[in-house]
């Protein structure tokens, strides 16, 4: 049978970068094997499922360039691919296991289960269901049924022995029966399946051959094998992917930085850079190669190259990748990708997940043709200096907005006082007036000669000039910035700074 894999997220939150890696690994494996990649939505937790999470899932897949072969929107002959639309199927098959004596109805109330949990805690007993309803008599069951209590359906897990599951990456995983969650729930009292039941039924009926998922699901593997055995089905090959950790060795979370794919998009990461970097979290081609296009990975990806050890998410390394990919963009490509960031505010999230504005939009109304031409001319001078697309707006804001208030300390080089800076700004004006008639090299030479005449270092001339022109000590290259603004505007700004002293 040809390879069939799936990515099956729950739309209870926005797509996590770790989930994106799982999706990519499945996608690349399918493409490298000329197989099929399925998208399945596991929305059985209806209370926590919300529409924006569903849209975020589709947006994330589209941004990553993951084109699923079967699933929502696309369709396919194994659907529906949204679990809430398969509810009747799960109910039918759960009741089938009860009829075969492989599962049973449990009528325990939440109150009784809570009492059992507290008794277990107080006596140092392992947690889990005490199998109270597993041995109910027919008379007891009839009485409970007549009381109107809606039961759940539990799987009859073995009381003794062990369960061995083979993983393509980790090898054999063995669990003693006593260490397996006893008699897990398959069908909830509201008729919705649990993750365990729906996952197994769907993987079997959708003919999934390989399950690539995070190592956090390893404890579920023995339970799933028992469900497969109860139905008499063959289990797909398992491939548990290494965990994605923060720099402190803990599971990656928002305390480490951005974790939602939407946050990376909002900050201005390129999808190519993100795909390249996260594909190296737990997978490698050799000991030296770092750069891979999506097309490369579709061809080269192999399960045998997946590591067992956890992968550390290094934000600085991702930033480096992003900068490298930005440098590779043509001017037209950079313009097309940057433009949306100039027309909306740059947002970020704090450690509590609250969104806040980092910088306002560069254009609050539709930019004019003239403004867009300035943007195009400015991009070559910032391309080598940006790490994220979102940085461009603040970096070129000075081209469209005069500094409202200068920070005078920024304009004061070390060992210089205000009177000296005023003298520098006065002395540099003749060079600015003839700036456009000379090359950058010739203008630099004139400033060097001025510095030598005044007994200063060249940076003692350039620093106050830079602050006058851009409003900041950190800016794009100064000479191209002066050319974009024009001598008249630069002279106006020099006067404005002088007047503040």
UniProtKB/TrEMBL annotation:
GO terms for molecular function: ATP binding; glutamate-tRNA ligase activity; tRNA binding; zinc ion binding. The gene is gltX. This is Glutamate--tRNA ligase. Residues 3-320 form the Glutamyl/glutaminyl-tRNA synthetase class Ib catalytic domain. It comes from Entomospira nematocerorum. It is found in: Cytoplasm. Its EC number is 6.1.1.17. One of its GO terms (cellular component) is cytosol. Catalyzes the attachment of glutamate to tRNA(Glu) in a two-step reaction: glutamate is first activated by ATP to form Glu-AMP and then transferred to the acceptor end of tRNA(Glu). Pfam families: Anticodon_2 (PF19269), tRNA-synt_1c (PF00749). It catalyses: tRNA(Glu) + L-glutamate + ATP = L-glutamyl-tRNA(Glu) + AMP + diphosphate. Monomer. GO terms for biological process: glutamyl-tRNA aminoacylation. A motif ('HIGH' region) lies at residues 9-19.
């Amino acid at each position: 049978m040809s390879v069939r894999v799936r990515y099956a997220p729950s739309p209870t939150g926005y797509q996590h970068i770790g989930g994106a890696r799982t999706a990519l690994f499945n996608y690349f494996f399918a493409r490298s094997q000329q197989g099929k990649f399925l998208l399945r939505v596991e929305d059985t937790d209806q209370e926590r499922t919300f529409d924006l999470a569903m849209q975020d899932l589709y947006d994330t897949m589209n941004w990553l360039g993951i084109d699923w072969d079967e699933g929502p929107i696309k369709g396919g002959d194994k659907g529906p691919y949204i679990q809430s639309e398969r509810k009747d199927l799960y109910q039918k098959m759960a009741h089938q296991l009860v009829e075969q004596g492989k599962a049973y109805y449990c009528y325990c109330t939440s109150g009784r289960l809570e009492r059992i949990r507290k008794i277990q805690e107080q006596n140092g007993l392992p947690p889990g269901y005490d199998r109270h309803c597993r041995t109910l008599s027919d008379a007891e069951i009839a009485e409970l049924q007549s009381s109107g209590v809606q039961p759940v359906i539990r799987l009859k897990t073995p009381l003794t022995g062990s369960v061995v599951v083979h993983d393509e990456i980790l090898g054999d995983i063995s669990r003693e029966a006593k260490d397996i969650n006893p008699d897990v729930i398959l069908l909830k009292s509201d008729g919705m399946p649990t993750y365990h039941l729906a996952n197994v039924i769907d993987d079997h009926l959708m003919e999934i051959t390989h399950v690539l998922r995070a190592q956090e699901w390893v404890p579920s593997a023995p339970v799933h094998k028992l469900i497969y055995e109860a139905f008499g089905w063959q289990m797909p090959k398992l491939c548990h992917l290494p965990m994605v950790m923060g720099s402190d060795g803990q599971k990656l979370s928002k305390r480490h930085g951005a974790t939602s794919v939407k946050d990376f998009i909002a900050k201005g990461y390129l999808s190519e850079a993100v795909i390249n970097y996260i594909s190296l979290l737990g997978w490698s081609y050799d000991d030296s190669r770092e750069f891979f296009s999506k097309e490369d990975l579709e061809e080269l990806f192999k399960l045998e190259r997946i590591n067992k050890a956890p992968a550390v998410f290094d934000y600085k390394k991702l930033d480096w990748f992003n900068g490298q990919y930005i440098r590779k963009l043509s001017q037209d490509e950079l313009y097309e990708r940057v433009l949306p960031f100039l027309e909306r505010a740059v947002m970020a999230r704090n450690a509590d997940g609250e969104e806040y504005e980092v910088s306002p939009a560069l254009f609050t109304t539709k930019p004019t043709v003239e403004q867009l031409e300035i943007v195009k001319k400015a991009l070559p001078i910032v391309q080598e200096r940006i790490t994220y697309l979102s940085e461009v707006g603040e970096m070129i804001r000075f081209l469209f907005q005069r500094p409202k208030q200068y920070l005078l300390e920024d304009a004061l080089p070390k060992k210089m006082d205000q009177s000296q800076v005023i003298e520098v700004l006065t002395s540099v004006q003749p060079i600015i007036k003839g700036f456009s008639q000379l090359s950058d090299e010739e203008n630099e030479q004139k400033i060097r000669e001025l510095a030598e005449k005044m007994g200063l270092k060249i940076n003692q001339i350039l620093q106050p000039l830079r602050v006058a022109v851009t409003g900041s000590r950190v800016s794009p290259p100064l000479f191209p910035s002066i050319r974009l603004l024009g001598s008249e505007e630069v002279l106006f700004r020099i006067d404005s700074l002088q007047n503040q002293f």
